[in-house]
């Protein structure tokens, strides 16, 4: 997902360019907005964390770009491409280093396992939207 801050700042094109240039194939993509229920469900693993309310507010405040990407070793390679959760710790050239401002508003999300990628893909897309 390209998160609301990245969309607000007009970074959709630049981020998708980096993703494509890094060898990822886009097999599904849409501009959409999460409801509070969507965000609470998507980030349920963080429901006890002190920043959960702030995270739900942030993720629902405007549109996001949801996408499913394909590549060999996609999960690890995408997490390398996006960089550390806190952009202050992200390596040079990573998407979060280039486009994120803070640990809470960090521009982009990547699934952390193949299993979660399948769950999160199904969260945003029906079968006929995946190519
Ligand atoms: N300490 C924090 N304060 C505020 N927001 C946070 C903090 N830690 C994480 N977040 C927010 O919650 C999201 C999920 O946290 P997580 O630890 O799963 O990071 P991540 O796996 O790098 O990010 P994501 O799951 O969005 O790809 C972060 O991307 C960020 O938006």
TrEMBL record:
Residues 1-131 form the Nucleoside diphosphate kinase-like domain. Its EC number is 2.7.4.6. It is an enzyme of class 2 (transferase). The keyword Magnesium applies. GO terms for biological process: CTP biosynthetic process; GTP biosynthetic process; UTP biosynthetic process. One of its GO terms (molecular function) is metal ion binding. Gene3D superfamilies: Nucleoside diphosphate kinase-like domain (3.30.70.141). Keywords: ATP-binding, Cytoplasm, Kinase, Magnesium, Metal-binding, Nucleotide metabolism, Nucleotide-binding, Phosphoprotein, Transferase. Its cofactor is Mg(2+). PANTHER family: NUCLEOSIDE DIPHOSPHATE KINASE, NUCLEOSIDE DIPHOSPHATE KINASE DDB_G0292928-RELATED. Belongs to the NDK family. This is nucleoside-diphosphate kinase.
């Amino acid at each position: 997902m390209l998160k609301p801050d990245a969309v607000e700042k007009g970074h959709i094109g630049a981020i998708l360019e980096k993703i494509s240039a890094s060898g990822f194939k886009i097999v599904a993509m849409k501009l959409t907005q999460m409801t509070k229920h969507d965000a609470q469900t998507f980030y349920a693993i963080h429901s006890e964390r002190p920043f959960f309310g702030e995270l739900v507010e942030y993720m629902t405040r405007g549109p996001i770009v949801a996408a499913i990407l394909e590549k060999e070793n996609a999960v690890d390679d995408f997490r390398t491409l996006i960089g550390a959760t806190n952009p202050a710790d992200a390596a040079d050239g990573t998407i979060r280093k280039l486009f994120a401002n803070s640990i809470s508003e960090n521009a982009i999300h990547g699934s952390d396992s193949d299993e979660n990628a399948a769950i999160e893909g199904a969260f945003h897309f029906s079968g006929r939207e995946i190519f």
